[in-house]
Amino acid sequence: MAHEVFFEIPERELGKVDIWIRVYRDTRRRKGLPKGQRKKEKLGDLLLSKGGVEWFKKGARKDRNGILKSWLTLAELIEGS
After folding, report:
1. What residue ranges in 1-81 does DSSP mark as E strands?
2. Which residues are bridge partners to 68 per DSSP?
3. Under the phi-then-psi rule, with left for phi > 0, alpha for psi from -120 to 50, and beta for the rest, what region is 59?
4. Are the CB atoms for 73 and 52 separated by under 8 Å?
5. Where are the domains of the chain?
6. Are 49 and 66 spatial neighbours (Cβ–Cβ below 8 Å)?
7. pLDDT digit string (tens) for 1-35?
8. Mapping DSSP to helix (H, G, I), strand (E, B) and coil, where does residue 30 land?
9. pTM higher than 0.70 for the full model?
């Protein structure tokens, strides 16, 4: 499955407001849709905050049901430590 992701922002400290990223995947190939038709399927939301990152799967309530990882825990998870 191909993904196209482009994003660049100037570096700055994260303030009091968290960053929400909605994550979708293109299901055109899975569903057999013609090339001109694209259908997006929401995978979930990623919340970035000073305390860490939190993943909310599709349909999860934002006040609970998220998977929270501190920045240190996330780094260890990704690096396999």
Report:
1. 19-26, 40-48, 52-57, 67-70
2. 54
3. left
4. yes
5. 19-79
6. no
7. 556 667 788 888 888 899 999 888 877 665 566 66
8. helix
9. yes
